[in-house]
Amino acid sequence: MIKSKKMLVLFTLLAASLLLAACGGTPAEEPAAEPTFDSSMLYTAAAKTVSADMTAQAQNSPTETPRPSATAQVIQPTALPTLAPAAGAATDDPNAPLPGLPAVNTPAGALPAQNTPAAPVLLVTPTLAAEAPKDKATWAGQNPDDYTVVKSGASFEMIWSLLNTGVTTWTTDYSYQYWGGSEGCTLYSPSKTYYLTTPVPPGGKVRIKVPMTAPMGKGTCQQRWVMVNADGQWFLDTFDITLEIE
After folding, report:
1. Which residues pair with 206 in a beta bridge?
2. Per-residue pLDDT at 205
3. What is the DSSP letter of 200?
4. C-alpha to C-alpha distance for 235 and 200, rounded to whole angstroms
5. CATH ID of 137-245, from 3.30.230.80, 2.60.40.10, 3.30.2130.10, 3.90.340.10
6. In what order do the strands lie in the sheet with 234-245?
7. Is there a smaller number of Cβ atoms within 10 Å at the N or the C end of the chain?
8. Which of 233, 31, 15 is nearest to 133 (CA)?
9. Of residues 39, 56, 40, 50, the one with CA closest to residue 10
10. Alpha helix (H) ranges present in the chain?
11. What is the dihedral of CA 12, 18, 24, 29, to 10 degrees?
């Protein structure tokens, strides 16, 4: 805005100077030649004035310190040195031996070894032993012996010798009973149950007797008997006889 006002004043002064010069003192008889207005001179003067004003303003203005232009620095990549794997170090080769283990030569075409899971450990729970029976009888002999020949229809007395190997005393309430026999060849006895006539303490021995009669006919006859305690419970031990009938 200040520069425009100065230029306007300058043009006004130039125009006034030209008008005064045109009206100045030349003889009447010889009219003076009209000056020729050269517009280039006006432009030249105006340009010089503007240039001088700009130079003065530039000298009074602070000088800006030029900033160094930034220069991009290109960093070239540096190749890393190639290191040889240390002895025993892990590699990407799945067939490479593990550190500290020798290499295993696998035959061509053979499958690689696989890890076999360990067999599960079975926990054995201890079981309590069954309580030993209090009543127990052990065979100690018999008469007649097994496979003795007996005439058909003959009567005889069967005798067994038993040991009391239990922890209770066999009282006269203990008995021995018929358990079973062979089919088609039955030894006849007048009763299926007989009671002891005397007590038998643990470790004692008793002879039990059963009257029998051989069947008519021929064959092999077998019978089995068992001891029974005062509560009617059978012993786990049985005793038998096998005879040949002819």
Report:
1. 162
2. 97
3. B
4. 15
5. 2.60.40.10
6. 148-150, 234-245, 219-228, 175-181, 193-195
7. N
8. 233
9. 50
10. 2-23, 39-60
11. -140
